[in-house]
Amino acid sequence: MTPTFSIVTPSFRNSSWLKLCLASVADQQVELEHIVQDAGSDDGTLEWLPQDSRAKVFVEKDSGMYDAINRGLRRARGDILAYLNCDEQYLPGALSVVRSVFENHTDLDVVFGDIVMIDPKGDYLYHRKVQTPLKYHTWTCQLSTLSCAMFFRRRIVFEKAFFFEPHLRDAGDGEWMVRLLKNNTKMAALGHFTSAFTCTGNNMSAGANATRERRELVASAPAWARSVKPAIILHHRLRRLCGGMYFQRPFSYEIFTASDLLHRRRFEVRRPTFRAPL
To answer: What is the CATH number of the domain that holds 23?
Structure first.
């Protein structure tokens, strides 16, 4: 049977986080395949990963995360594709919600969920509510979505050839999104929490190379857009304000933690905030 979803996870020396990631995909109760592209981990990952029946495991050298993702996508059989890094998880029922939206809106090619930002113990830090990204804000400022809550149709990759740029190491999702927006790709925001992102302190997006790659993406934008960047930022913030992105009622989420790899733990969020801790 052809799976509805193909989830790709690029892996390298992230054994403990990968176990949580695998568990969060395996209990989604939809037809799926989870493809793990490991670059040859030497931290003990390969002592257990090839025997884990929850994933299709491929161990081969790659030139970086986006090359690994492309390799996994080329192996994917599902109609809905996504990639989930080792330190990220899906929340319960996330893929059922995504499937329903794609089934009811056949014109959509990409959908985005909201994200709970957590610390290494799973405790709540803040959250990110997502709107569909805009071209010039993404191009000149930053990507306003997170890849752990992004889902796209197979045709985006295999009919329109929107693979990720393999020479990039950290900002490939932003560059990929700019290309999609230039192509007027149909997108929508779910308005539903689908994913958890672990702020480990070692996330690649916070590194010096990520900063450099983002600067290069900004430099490739039209000069007029770069010159009106403050106005683009203001428009982005007003759009979020009018869209209710700065308000969230108390809620709960369930994730896997290092203390229990078999059962999700429930966390209550009584004072939600969109602000990242200083």
So the answer is: 3.90.550.10
Domain-located, residue 274:
no
> In total, how many domains does the chain have?
1
pLDDT digits (tens, 9 = 90+) for 15-39: 899 999 999 999 999 999 999 999 9
Question: Which residues span the domain enclosing 69?
Answer: 5-269
Is residue 277 in a domain?
A: no
The reported pTM is 0.95
Within a domain: residue 276? Answer: no
pLDDT tens string 136-167: 999 999 999 999 999 999 999 999 999 999 99
> Residue 7 in contact with residue 33, Cβ under 8 Å?
yes
